[in-house]
Amino acid sequence: MVGVIRGTGACLPETIVDNEDLAGIMDTSDEWIRERTGIARRRLIREETTVSMAVRAAERALEDAGVGAEEIDLILVSTVSSNTVLPSTACAVQEQIGADSAVCFDLNAACTGFLFGLSTAQTYIYAGAAKHVLVIGAESLSGLVNWEDRSTAILFGDGAGAVVLCAREGDFPPLVMHSDGGRGRVLTCGSPFEGAGGYPAQSPGSSAAKDREGARAPFIRMDGQEIFRFAVRQVPGCIEELLEKCGRSLEEIDLFLLHQANARIVEGIARRLRADPAKFPMNLAEYGNTSSASIPILLDELNRGGRLREGMRLVLAGFGAGLSWGAAYLEWQKERS
Ligand code: UT7
């Protein structure tokens, strides 16, 4: 069995913050941000939360797929910015959409998270353990960036995207996933207690609750140039590995949907592959880097914009903290045959 995407959905916060707004609060400019990243504006949560956006994206994807919440038997949410440590965002989504039969869990693979969610969903489906799966990427990174650090604060945005996968006869789909924990230090976000080595150990009568009062907020920290080099070097090889696995040439691929981190990264990957840059759609000018939500948000825009025709060959590719990276091949078969 294989999962095919029957529906997509997205949810973006209403509040728009453009580059000029940021230039008003930090030493940056619209020109610098556009030239170095391709980002013009981003959406940031006010009333919304990671859970509320995940729920809305899921409802839209279910509606698009014509699948009822009660039919869903697995909900996977990729997020690094869950409302709470416990319970998971996936369980909160289950409750709010009424997917009572679903098994639910979150996974953390940062900006590659949607790809890890997709591969986990396909594994469940192939094993016969699920027939209808919701895979969601949802993030509120505005709560994890240091708004005094201009090198990271300008990059990220909030949002959620979702797909509904339905099982049909077929082989396990071509997927390539990689992780390299040895290079993880170039992109981190610690716990509030990272200076003390993480969450403090507690024993009966310990004063950990008191210690936590003084904890610092955790922030995203990164070596931007190192991440840039990693993405532009690693992702083309990963896509070539995927194409070899599925026996397709680069020219046979209609669209490459890459994690939306930086327009120069997407262009650099296209150049290294010697692929037509027109096959690499981008929306990061509007939303910035929404981490694990970026690929499903882009997929939803293309789907709703009528840009995906039946039978189109797509490559999805993500990369980010871990380090982690991966790619998936799929043929667009949204209509039930
Ligand atoms: O999902 C994965 C998450 N991470 C990423 O995708 C990050 C990937 N990396 C990048 O996108 C880029 O490395 C950045 C956009 C973060 C930075 O672009 P860059 O071309 O690598 O710039 P840089 O770090 O080499 O900095 C160049 C200059 C520096 O000033 P000096 O030392 O040359 O005087 C920075 O201090 O630009 C300065 N700078 C800024 N200037 C204005 C850094 N951030 C800003 C800013 N506005 N926001």
Protein topology:
Layout: E1 2-11, E2 15-18, H1 19-23, H2 30-37, E3 41-44, H3 50-65, E4 74-78, H4 89-97, E5 103-107, H5 113-126, E6 132-140, H6 150-153, E7 158-168, E8 175-179, E9 187-189, H7 208-212, E10 220-222, H8 224-246, E11 255-258, H9 263-273, H10 284-287, H11 294-304, E12 313-320, E13 324-331
The structure holds oxa(dethia)-CoA.
Report on the structure:
With 337 residues, the chain is an alpha/beta fold. The protein folds into 2 domains: 2-168, Peroxisomal Thiolase, Chain A, domain 1 (3-Layer(aba) Sandwich), CATH 3.40.47; 175-184 and 220-331, Peroxisomal Thiolase, Chain A, domain 1 (3-Layer(aba) Sandwich). Helix content is 33%, strand content 23%. The protein contains 11 helices and 13 strands. The chain has helices spanning 19-23, 30-37, 50-65, 89-97, 113-126, 150-153, 208-212, 224-246, 263-273, 284-287, 294-304; strands spanning 2-11, 15-18, 41-44, 74-78, 103-107, 132-140, 158-168, 175-179, 187-189, 220-222, 255-258, 313-320, 324-331. The strands form 4 sheets. Strands 1-7-6-4-5 form a 5-stranded mixed sheet, with helices on both faces. Helix 3 packs across helix 4 and helix 8 crosses helix 9 (263-273). The longest helix has 23 residues, at 224-246. The radius of gyration is 20 Å and the shape is globular. 47% of the residues are buried. Oxa(dethia)-CoA binds next to helix 2, helix 6 and helix 8.
